[in-house]
């Protein structure tokens, strides 16, 4: 048999180590401390010296006050814990607890020694009674136990009867513990106090509940009862509970019953986990959603983005890319090739999503226009007509006639609201006329990208024929590829010669049908209304040929014809709906403005709820006045419309700032006042250094009302691009003295709006700058020959004088022109044009290739063959 150490013997005897050591020494054994070991025979001898060979029952504690002895289960458990944990304590080195145990043992022993002298070695009657009660209760509990639990209990008791060391018997840790508890429990029953043996406490007491609920449940084969760990954290330091190696200082191993309970619970819990009959819930299998038909991607997406689109895990995408030779992680942006590889790997198409700039309403307009042209919902729409022609040929008269006869005649009360366009009805078919005659309006609209006109009506006066502006109108219409209907007007006039006009027009490739051409000619009188209906019919015919269609189902797009600010109604825009249908309340962006269609009025002044294609309407509800030719696009919501409008307005403002007008000598005075300038910037270039310096000194001396000249740069040589760039950036102008700008500098200056002034006399430059700063710079004018004429005929008319019948060889002559009369190469006379006529009508201007009749103020000696130079004064900038 192995040797036994003193402390083991002491433990068995329930005596303090020191006492045993002393006794061993008394017996002559070689014992130094509690760690000293003894032979088996020595142990028996030593044990024999103690009167009580069985473990000593400690005397019950006497209550100081009443002398009443209380035995608590807690105390019992504390003691058994002391016993049970002593080994653990050794290992764990919890000296503090050990010290406390030792001191407690010392006290107990001292008490025992005293008590052994005074009282018999048995528990006090009161304590015995209590124990009895306790045991009785336990028996009751035991009898109520389930059969398997009782069996377990029985087994346990059997174990108790055949005590074994914990090392030898290890059927299960729990059982060992229970056995240990049972052994020590009987020895240390007389422990400290407990007030009330609660069932919970009894449960963990070795005598009361050797079998835990867990075990009971296990034996039953049923599921473990729900753990009653409700008190967890109640009065405990829950942080450190049950964490081996992290025992907090507040954990009292020696006497903390709660800790023991907790340990039990933990063990039970672990066992429960180990033997839980309920199978663990399997992780739910993730159902894979089907792949999309196509991968609509944007360059720069990462594996996570693609995972979302493809309904796949990002890791799977990364893996796929890895297999394809693309090393990436989930967050790394992927290029087009990598994304398309992934799509191909999944066997689906890849479509790149092109980012659409919603603020680019011009592109949106074009896109919607194209879409509507492809639409299946297209229906016939009214034609949009512009009337063009030479001055005084009757455009306004025709428009007035149409408006009054064909609009007001059908509407009671006539036109109440004049808007920039109106609809005329013939046989109940509407025609939209733009109410702005002349090619200027047409070309202005075109210049801004607005092509709203379907048909041009070219008005030519039958008594005048083709005139310069007629030709211009033809050119404009042709370049816009808009078909022309010729209306030969003034058929009622005495000198009307439609055949002549037709002949003239044929030169411009406008060939009437009866001459084998395709152009429609209608002879009308805007004044009398003759054939005006026929003209309208011809417009409808032309429209039919053109198959003008639109899709009224889509969102409206249109163009502003005119806009103004109304005092009562705010910004008002006259617009033409070109495709789709515009509804009241639609959120819109118009050019750089935005809003919601508040009130919509048609060309007859009636409020309407919707406007269909080719319908001119007036709308209110915009945040500001738009410009003519601005595009209109409808948005889904007002918020987007607002943000787009604001974005566009901001961009326009930025653009305007970039194109800010630079200071020039001409605007210097105004700019100084407006911008509160303190100095005038000048870039100075001269032929020689001396001139540059002289000019610089003179200019820097100029001071007008506290404003001085600041020479930003002075140098020698031609004005070059960098001078222009510098001047543009510094809002300065350039003075060149005896130098010229280079060709590129000149064009750049024009583009940037930089003023270049060239001088060859110093004082002239200084005077000009001074005068400009004082706002007294006079513009320079120069006589310029604008046309050359040859006198072909002369008439002498009384009271009028001599009328020269002249032909304009080149350029033009106007009513404001001055003429030089040249005879045999000599300027004989210079005077103002007194009157200018074409046939019988006064005209403002006669251009190259036309005859005219003119008189010269104060000069009648005009002869056939005389040459006339038409001269006009034009403002010139020094070169
Ligand atoms: N006899 C006659 N005179 C006409 C006819 N149509 C217009 N006129 C006259 O021609 C002149 C000019 O007519 P407008 O309608 O002002 O001509 P316009 O082309 O609009 O002229 P601008 O506005 O200057 O471009 C006016 O005196 C009209 O009365 C017509 O059919 N017969």
From TrEMBL:
<feature type="domain" description="Tr-type G">
    <location>
        <begin position="380"/>
        <end position="549"/>
    </location>
</feature>
<dbReference type="Pfam" id="PF22042">
    <property type="entry name" value="EF-G_D2"/>
</dbReference>
<dbReference type="InterPro" id="IPR005225">
    <property type="entry name" value="Small_GTP-bd"/>
</dbReference>
<dbReference type="InterPro" id="IPR000795">
    <property type="entry name" value="T_Tr_GTP-bd_dom"/>
</dbReference>
<keyword id="KW-0648">Protein biosynthesis</keyword>
<dbReference type="GO" id="GO:0003743">
    <property type="term" value="F:translation initiation factor activity"/>
</dbReference>
<dbReference type="InterPro" id="IPR023115">
    <property type="entry name" value="TIF_IF2_dom3"/>
</dbReference>
<feature type="compositionally biased region" description="Basic and acidic residues">
    <location>
        <begin position="273"/>
        <end position="291"/>
    </location>
</feature>
<dbReference type="Pfam" id="PF11987">
    <property type="entry name" value="IF-2"/>
</dbReference>
<dbReference type="InterPro" id="IPR053905">
    <property type="entry name" value="EF-G-like_DII"/>
</dbReference>
<dbReference type="InterPro" id="IPR009000">
    <property type="entry name" value="Transl_B-barrel_sf"/>
</dbReference>
<keyword id="KW-0396">Initiation factor</keyword>
<dbReference type="InterPro" id="IPR006847">
    <property type="entry name" value="IF2_N"/>
</dbReference>
<feature type="region of interest" description="Disordered">
    <location>
        <begin position="37"/>
        <end position="292"/>
    </location>
</feature>
<dbReference type="InterPro" id="IPR015760">
    <property type="entry name" value="TIF_IF2"/>
</dbReference>
<feature type="compositionally biased region" description="Basic residues">
    <location>
        <begin position="263"/>
        <end position="272"/>
    </location>
</feature>
<dbReference type="InterPro" id="IPR036925">
    <property type="entry name" value="TIF_IF2_dom3_sf"/>
</dbReference>
<dbReference type="InterPro" id="IPR000178">
    <property type="entry name" value="TF_IF2_bacterial-like"/>
</dbReference>
<feature type="binding site">
    <location>
        <begin position="389"/>
        <end position="396"/>
    </location>
    <ligand>
        <name>GTP</name>
    </ligand>
</feature>
<keyword id="KW-0963">Cytoplasm</keyword>
<dbReference type="InterPro" id="IPR027417">
    <property type="entry name" value="P-loop_NTPase"/>
</dbReference>
<dbReference type="Pfam" id="PF00009">
    <property type="entry name" value="GTP_EFTU"/>
</dbReference>
<feature type="compositionally biased region" description="Polar residues">
    <location>
        <begin position="163"/>
        <end position="189"/>
    </location>
</feature>
<keyword id="KW-0547">Nucleotide-binding</keyword>
<comment type="similarity">
    <text>Belongs to the TRAFAC class translation factor GTPase superfamily. Classic translation factor GTPase family. IF-2 subfamily.</text>
</comment>
<feature type="compositionally biased region" description="Polar residues">
    <location>
        <begin position="37"/>
        <end position="53"/>
    </location>
</feature>
<protein>
    <recommendedName>
        <fullName>Translation initiation factor IF-2</fullName>
    </recommendedName>
</protein>
<dbReference type="Pfam" id="PF04760">
    <property type="entry name" value="IF2_N"/>
</dbReference>
<feature type="region of interest" description="G-domain">
    <location>
        <begin position="383"/>
        <end position="531"/>
    </location>
</feature>
<keyword id="KW-0342">GTP-binding</keyword>
<feature type="binding site">
    <location>
        <begin position="435"/>
        <end position="439"/>
    </location>
    <ligand>
        <name>GTP</name>
    </ligand>
</feature>
<feature type="binding site">
    <location>
        <begin position="489"/>
        <end position="492"/>
    </location>
    <ligand>
        <name>GTP</name>
    </ligand>
</feature>
<feature type="compositionally biased region" description="Polar residues">
    <location>
        <begin position="248"/>
        <end position="260"/>
    </location>
</feature>
<feature type="compositionally biased region" description="Basic residues">
    <location>
        <begin position="95"/>
        <end position="104"/>
    </location>
</feature>
<feature type="compositionally biased region" description="Basic and acidic residues">
    <location>
        <begin position="77"/>
        <end position="94"/>
    </location>
</feature>
<dbReference type="InterPro" id="IPR044145">
    <property type="entry name" value="IF2_II"/>
</dbReference>
<comment type="function">
    <text>One of the essential components for the initiation of protein synthesis. Protects formylmethionyl-tRNA from spontaneous hydrolysis and promotes its binding to the 30S ribosomal subunits. Also involved in the hydrolysis of GTP during the formation of the 70S ribosomal complex.</text>
</comment>
<feature type="compositionally biased region" description="Basic and acidic residues">
    <location>
        <begin position="151"/>
        <end position="162"/>
    </location>
</feature>
């Amino acid at each position: 048999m192995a040797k036994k150490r003193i402390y083991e013997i002491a433990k068995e005897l329930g005596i303090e180590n020191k006492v045993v050591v002393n006794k061993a020494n008394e017996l002559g054994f070689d014992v130094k401390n509690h760690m000293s070991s003894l032979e088996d025979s020595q142990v028996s001898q030593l044990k024999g010296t103690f009167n009580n060979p069985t473990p000593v029952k400690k005397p019950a504690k006497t209550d100081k006050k009443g002398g009443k002895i209380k035995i608590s289960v807690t105390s019992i458990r504390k003691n058994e814990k002391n016993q049970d944990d002593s080994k653990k304590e050794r290992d764990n080195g919890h000296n503090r607890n050990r010290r406390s145990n030792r001191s407690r043992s010392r006290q107990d022993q001292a008490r025992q020694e005293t008590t052994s002298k005074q009282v018999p070695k048995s528990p006090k009657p009161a304590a015995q009674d209590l124990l009895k009660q306790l045991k009785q209760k336990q028996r009751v509990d035991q009898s109520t136990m389930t059969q398997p639990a009782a069996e377990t209990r029985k087994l346990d008791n059997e174990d108790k009867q055949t005590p074994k060391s914990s090392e030898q018997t290890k059927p299960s840790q729990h059982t060992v513990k229970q056995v240990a508890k049972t052994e020590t429990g009987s020895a240390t029953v007389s422990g400290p106090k407990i007030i009330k043996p609660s069932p919970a406490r009894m449960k963990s007491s070795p005598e009361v509940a050797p079998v835990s609920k867990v075990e009971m449940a296990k034996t039953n084969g049923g599921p473990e009862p729900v753990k009653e760990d409700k008190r967890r954290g109640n009065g405990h330091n829950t942080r450190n509970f049950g964490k081996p190696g992290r025992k907090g200082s507040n954990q009292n191993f020696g006497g903390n019953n709660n800790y023991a309970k907790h340990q039990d619970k933990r063990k039970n819990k672990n066992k429960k986990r180990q033997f839980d009959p309920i199978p663990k819930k399997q992780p739910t299998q993730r159902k894979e959603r089907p792949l999309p038909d196509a991968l609509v991607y944007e360059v720069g997406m990462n594996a996570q983005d693609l995972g979302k689109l493809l309904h796949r895990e990002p890791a799977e995408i990364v893996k796929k890319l890895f297999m394809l030779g693309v090393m990436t992680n989930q967050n790394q942006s992927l290029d087009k090739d990598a994304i398309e590889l992934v799509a191909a790997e999944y066997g689906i198409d890849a479509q790149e999503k092109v980012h659409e700039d919603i603020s680019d309403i011009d592109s949106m307009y074009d896109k919607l226009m194209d879409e509507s042209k492809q639409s299946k919902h297209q229906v016939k729409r009214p034609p949009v007509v512009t009337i063009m022609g030479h001055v005084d040929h009757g455009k306004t008269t025709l428009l007035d006639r149409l408006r009054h006869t064909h609009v007001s005649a059908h509407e009671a009360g006539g036109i109440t609201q004049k808007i920039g366009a109106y609809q005329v009805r013939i046989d109940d078919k509407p025609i939209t006329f733009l109410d702005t005659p002349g090619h200027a309006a047409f070309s202005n609209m075109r210049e801004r990208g607005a092509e709203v006109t379907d048909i041009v009506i070219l008005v030519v006066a039958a008594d005048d024929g083709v005139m310069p502006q007629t030709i211009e109108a033809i050119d404009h219409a042709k370049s816009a590829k808009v078909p022309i209907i010729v209306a030969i007007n003034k058929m009622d006039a005495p000198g009307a010669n439609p055949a002549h006009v037709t002949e003239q027009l044929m030169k411009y490739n406008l060939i009437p049908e009866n001459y084998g051409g395709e152009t429609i000619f209608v002879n009308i009188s805007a004044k009398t209304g003759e054939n005006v209906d026929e003209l309208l019919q011809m417009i409808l015919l032309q429209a039919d040929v053109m198959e003008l269609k639109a899709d009224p189902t889509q969102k409206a797009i249109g163009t502003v014809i005119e806009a103004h600010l109304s005092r009562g109604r705010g910004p008002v825009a006259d617009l033409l709906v070109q495709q789709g249908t515009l509804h009241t309340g639609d959120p819109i962006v118009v050019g750089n403005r935005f809003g919601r269609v508040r009130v919509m009025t048609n060309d007859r002044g009636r409020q309407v709820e919707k406007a269909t294609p080719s319908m001119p309407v007036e709308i209110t509800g915009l945040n500001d006045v738009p410009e003519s030719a601005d595009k209109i696009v409808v948005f889904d919501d007002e918020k987007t419309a607002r943000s787009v409008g604001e974005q566009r307005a901001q961009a326009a403002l930025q653009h305007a700032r970039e194109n800010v007008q630079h200071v020039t000598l001409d605007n210097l005075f105004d700019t100084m006042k407006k911008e509160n300038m303190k100095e005038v910037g000048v870039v100075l270039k001269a032929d020689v250094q001396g001139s540059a310096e002289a000019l610089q000194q003179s200019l820097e001396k100029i001071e007008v009302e506290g404003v001085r000249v600041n020479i930003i740069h002075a140098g020698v040589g031609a004005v070059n691009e960098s001078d222009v760039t510098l001047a543009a950036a510094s809002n300065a102008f350039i003075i060149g003295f005896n130098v010229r700008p280079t060709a590129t500098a000149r064009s750049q200056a024009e583009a940037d709006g930089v003023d270049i002034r060239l001088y060859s006399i110093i004082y002239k430059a200084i005077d000009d700058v001074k005068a400009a700063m004082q706002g007294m710079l006079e513009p320079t004018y120069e006589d310029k020959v604008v046309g050359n004429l040859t006198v072909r005929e002369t008439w002498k008319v009384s009271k009028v004088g001599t009328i020269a019948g002249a032909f304009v060889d080149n350029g033009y002559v106007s009513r404001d022109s001055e003429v030089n009369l040249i005879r045999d190469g000599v300027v004989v006379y210079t005077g103002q044009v007194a009157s200018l006529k074409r046939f019988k009508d006064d005209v403002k201007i006669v251009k190259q290739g036309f005859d005219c009749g003119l008189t010269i103020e104060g000069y009648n000696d005009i002869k056939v063959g005389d040459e006339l130079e038409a001269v006009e004064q034009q403002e010139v900038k020094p070169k």
